[in-house]
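Try this one yourself first.
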């Protein structure tokens, strides 16, 4: 936990304004904020988003911006069929960003062929770019991967990846947008 206003040297009023706008997109609306006139205490991920000046798009903006399938996968936790997405067999260099908000998620240097039919990476571009939570849907216990800025569903993380992390970030192509280098 960090004192946001202190770390960013921002007036508390400006931070409070940002939170009012973005509140429902951060941690599913359950933002654990302790606020008073002088101090706001926030989790680390929120701090990172603010430092990068990124703002989570509203649901209305996303409905306009995304196709109905993109919206379904990103915002409703859907899954594209294996071997059908744009990036499972893509070998181009660049940065894969969140299709909903543009947050940089993965670099092509960490992409590898997992044989799964989905784009797979062994690590996010930064430690805090992707957040995870336990997903118990479909009778399985899995680790869901979400964009740390807008909370969109990206895919799942499995413990069968290559070195150095041993992790497989199994993503839906439709959740990513490659910015080529
Ligand atoms: Zn995002």
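Now uncover the answer:
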């Amino acid at each position: 936990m960090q004192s946001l206003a202190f770390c960013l040297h921002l007036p508390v009023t400006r931070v409070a304004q940002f939170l009012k706008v973005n509140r429902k997109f951060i941690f599913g609306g359950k933002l654990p904020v302790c606020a008073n006139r002088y101090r706001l205490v926030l989790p680390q991920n929120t701090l990172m988003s603010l430092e990068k000046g990124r703002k989570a798009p509203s649901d209305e903006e996303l409905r306009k911006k995304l196709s109905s399938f993109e919206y379904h996968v990103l915002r409703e936790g859907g899954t594209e069929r294996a071997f059908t997405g744009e990036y499972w067999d893509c070998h181009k260099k660049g940065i894969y960003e969140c299709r909903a908000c543009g947050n940089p998620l993965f670099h092509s240097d960490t992409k590898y062929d997992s044989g799964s039919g989905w784009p797979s990476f062994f690590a996010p571009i930064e430690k805090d770019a992707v957040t995870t939570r336990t997903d118990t849907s479909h009778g399985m216990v899995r680790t869901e991967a979400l964009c740390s800025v807008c909370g969109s569903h990206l895919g799942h993380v499995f413990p069968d990846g290559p070195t150095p992390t041993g992790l497989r970030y199994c993503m839906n192509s439709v959740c990513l947008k490659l910015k080529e280098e």
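Discussion: Residues 43 and 61 are 25 Å apart (CA to CA). The two ends are 35 Å apart (CA to CA).
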